[in-house]
Amino acid sequence: MAQFKWVVDPMHSEVQFKVKHLMITTVTGYFKNFNIEAVTADEAFTDVTSVVFTADVNSISTNNEQRDTHLKSPDFFDVEKHDEIRFVGKSYEHVGGQDYKLQGDLIIRDITKPVTINVEFGGIVVDPYGQTKAGFTINGKISRKEFGLTWNAVTEAGSVVVSDEIKLQAEIQLVKQA
After folding, report:
1. Domain 4-176: which topology?
2. Rounded to whole angstroms, how far apart are CA atoms 38 and 42?
């Protein structure tokens, strides 16, 4: 049985998260350094046998150095002890058209929880350099508190500063390996 290995093209991929701040606006952050490796049984991404995503928490950026330092502290990710976020895919299910559900285990701060993310398969092309590439748009939601990211504060009016729900968004290009 043939197997095809795919790795992320970091120049054409991005991984973001969005969180409500003061429950009135959304702050966007991203990871500058991440990796994705996938193994498929076919070249059309209908039979995915393995997906592993890792993100270097030290590469987190919200375009605010003070906030980024706080996110790296023990109040949130505690990068001194937990410098990596990891997702290991368990199943990849077609739900119609170009839409799939990817289920797997997300590990943050050594806490593992099952999550399901939505995957829109954009297709496969050969680029001008002869590389076969596959494209994906990924969306999902998690509860940060389920992963031990429980810090919060309350305003004078009683509103929370940071929402529990984190929206995950990614645009991913994978490159087929020879």
Report:
1. Lipocalin (2.40.128)
2. 12
Confidence of residue 159 (pLDDT cuts 50, 70, 90): low
Q: What is the DSSP letter of 147?
A: G
- C-alpha 176/C-alpha 153 separation (Å) is 46
Core vs surface per residue 120-131: b (16+ CB within 10 A) or e = ebbeeeeeeeee
Mean pLDDT of all residues belonging to the chain: 94
What is the C-alpha radius of gyration for the chain, rounded to an integer number of angstroms? 17
Percent of the chain with pLDDT over 90: 85
Each domain of the chain, given as residue ranges in start order, spans 4-176
**Residue type present at position 23:** M
The closest alpha carbon to 91, from 79, 105, 80, belongs to 105
